[in-house]
Design a protein that fits this description.
By secondary structure, the chain is an alpha+beta fold. It contains 16 helices and 28 strands. The strands form seven sheets. Strands 1, 2, 3, 4, 11 and 12 form a six-stranded mixed sheet that branches. The longest helix is centred in the last third of the chain and has 31 residues. The protein is elongated and about 95 Å long.
């Protein structure tokens, strides 16, 4: 009797066959691809034995060049040679730091920015796809076959638009995305399994364009992210830019041609890298107009001019520790990730903060890709001796707008993902048949101070009195950190849903500012929220009282009617003001004045309902 071979769709029919999956670190400066072979993760090199692929794409009249070749032509062809494209993913032109100093011809298109090149207008998604395509081809050539899928890493502070853009780039490159994995989590994964570490660890990830810090607890195969923080617009590029500005100041330069800007930026980056191992660096360059730049910079001078950038990373680190309710002394080890952590003054600052030397026994350029490869190997079904569970978190709270421009948080920041939370809301007016759902991201109490993610409408709500309808709104965040919101009226089961895909991401320092603002303005926010709540209560009572008077004013005597009218007018007078206590007092006064009126209306309603009915009929019901 023949035996059937049964397999999952897209998987091998041979259970012993190793499924080809990779982890990809799509970096701002360099990108890498890694896989697991013989139970161990390893970075895959190109034909020349180079592990790092510069994240640089050069467009030509015919064809495209990626990596080392493109990087070599950057100074000579800056408009068509795109580097650090990760900073443009999911963003508009106004969100790009130092855009005026970049040599690119930006197109401020609706949604995400685009770049005009000799090969046409290109989006950051298309540019990133070219990098991913080269990494896919490298992996397939090295592994000898097509890939089942890839885990691609993203900064923990990438918002929904930036994550969607990364996923779209992978799809364009012909990759099946098994998961988007936060970069610090990937690094912890590599360290946790390689070193069999347990306890609380901090991952300090300073890459070319982004900074992330995560605090994790590693315990018995569970990687639990306790808190995360950072800045999606702070990285090694900013250290380069500060040194570039110093060069302009020292050499008294201005109004440079695009090729000169690219040349001096490259010289600044080279000097920064040299200062990581030497006490001094020389910067020499001949500009297109014949001028000669010849400067020298010491390691101490470079550290001094970039100390404010290091301080920003330390403040985010302290905040992440506070969020996790930990002190630096509670951290067992600190993992350094990203090439920018090679700068000595960065390492010293981290060591001083935690009171211990950071862990550097895995190459900081490779550790993220190695961790991603391990996760890809697991998701592809190549089970090894060890299994583990990743419990990542969302960086900012998610919520909805309620009456009065208030924000009702549904999922608080640092919630473990994947996560689903539901909350019930109701209608504000009698007979309301539709509700506008406004999805927000941020820590503040008012809508104006948070980031709008999406809007949609729930229609077909059965007409009822205000407050009777039950609208259940469900937020679902998947393992990639992508959000879906569903709204349903529970009695009729009518529902609406939206996959949150904002047109582009948060501004350069929006996330850090949101967190700082939420802490620095907490008391003022609470006062503002209290005022809005009183205003909403006042408006609801005003409308209900006016409707009751229109229907049953005959139940009141002249003096009683005058009293209610006077209290109603007093509430209307203060409802639009900013004195929450005065509004509350007026609400209480009107509510007290209408208590007897409400009782009489109730009696009338009961008598009307029972009129002409026999006692046995009423009892039967």
């Amino acid at each position: 009797m023949a035996l059937l071979q049964i397999a999952e769709p897209g998987m091998s029919t041979a259970p012993h066959q190793h499924r080809l999956a990779v982890g990809i670190d799509l970096g701002t400066t360099n990108s890498l691809v890694a896989t697991v072979r013989h139970g161990l993760p390893e970075v895959l090199a190109d034909a020349q034995g180079r592990a790092l692929l510069p994240s640089v794409v050069r467009y030509r009249g015919a064809g495209v060049e990626v990596g080392h070749g493109a990087q070599a032509q950057q100074a000579g062809d800056p408009r068509n040679t795109i580097s650090s494209v990760k900073r443009f993913m999911g963003r508009g032109v106004k969100d790009v730091a130092h855009a005026e100093n970049l040599p690119y011809d930006f197109v401020d298109a609706p949604g995400m920015l685009q770049l005009r090149t000799v090969a046409g207008v290109k989006s950051p998604v298309e540019v990133s796809a070219e990098i991913l395509k080269v990494l896919r081809e490298r992996a397939e050539a090295s592994l000898g076959g097509p890939l089942v899928g890839a885990v691609i890493t993203v900064p923990a502070y990438f918002d929904d638009a930036q994550r969607q853009a990364t996923r779209d780039a992978a799809r364009l490159a012909g990759l099946n995305v098994l998961r988007l994995l936060n970069e610090p989590t990937a690094a912890a994964l590599a360290y946790g399994l390689d070193n069999e570490a347990e306890g609380v660890f901090a991952v300090y990830d300073l890459g070319g364009g982004t900074f992330d810090v995560s605090v994790l607890r590693l315990r018995k195969g569970v990687f639990e992210v306790l808190a995360t923080g950072g800045d999606s617009a702070l990285g090694g590029d900013d250290f380069d830019h500060r040194l570039y500005c110093w060069i302009l100041e020292q050499a008294n330069l201005s109004l440079l041609a695009p090729e000169d800007q690219s040349l001096l930026t490259a010289r600044a980056r080279a000097a920064k890298e040299r200062l990581s191992s030497k006490g001094k660096a020389t910067i020499q360059a001949r500009l297109s107009d014949g001028r000669w730049v010849n400067l020298s910079i010491s390691a101490e001078g470079f550290a001094s001019m970039t100390q404010h950038l290091v301080a920003k990373t330390l403040e985010a680190t302290r905040q992440a520790l506070r969020d996790a309710q930990l002190k630096p002394a509670d951290v067992k080890g600190v993992v350094l990730v990203g090439g920018a952590t090679r700068m000595p003054h960065v390492r010293k600052a981290v060591a001083d903060l935690f009171g211990q030397a950071p862990l550097t026994n895995i190459d900081p350029d490779q550790v993220v890709a190695l961790g991603a490869a391990m996760q890809a190997n697991l998701l592809a079904g190549n089970r090894g001796g060890d299994d583990w569970l990743l419990l990542d978190v969302i960086p900012l709270s998610l919520g909805l707008e309620t009456m009065g421009g208030l924000v009702e948080k549904v999922i608080p920041r640092n919630s473990t993902i994947p996560v689903a939370r539901a909350q019930e809301f109701t209608t504000f007016k009698d007979g309301q048949t539709a509700m506008a759902i406004h999805v927000l991201q941020g820590e503040r109490e008012l809508v104006d101070h948070c980031r709008s993610l999406a809007r949609f409408e729930l229609r077909g709500i059965p007409p009822m009195v205000a407050g009777a309808a039950r609208i259940r709104v469900t937020f679902q965040v998947d393992a990639d950190g992508l959000l879906e919101v569903t709204a349903m009226e529970t009695a009729s089961a009518v529902q609406a849903r939206v996959e949150v895909k904002p047109s582009y991401g948060l501004g350069d320092e929006d996330i850090a500012r949101m967190l700082q603002d939420s802490m620095g303005t907490a008391e003022a926010d609470l006062q503002a929220r209290a005022l809005r709540e009183q205003q909403v209560d006042a408006q609801r009572l005003i409308e209900a009282t006016a409707a009751a008077l229109a229907a049953d004013a005959d139940l009141l005597g002249a003096a009683e009617f005058a009293e209610v009218e006077a209290r109603l007018a007093a509430l209307r007078a203060v409802a639009a003001g900013d004195d929450a206590e005065a509004i509350k007092a007026a609400v209480d006064a009107l509510a007290h004045a209408t208590e007897e009126f409400a009782a009489r209306r109730m009696d009338r309603s009961i008598r009307a309902a029972l009129a002409g009915r026999r006692v046995d009929e009423v009892m039967a019901r």
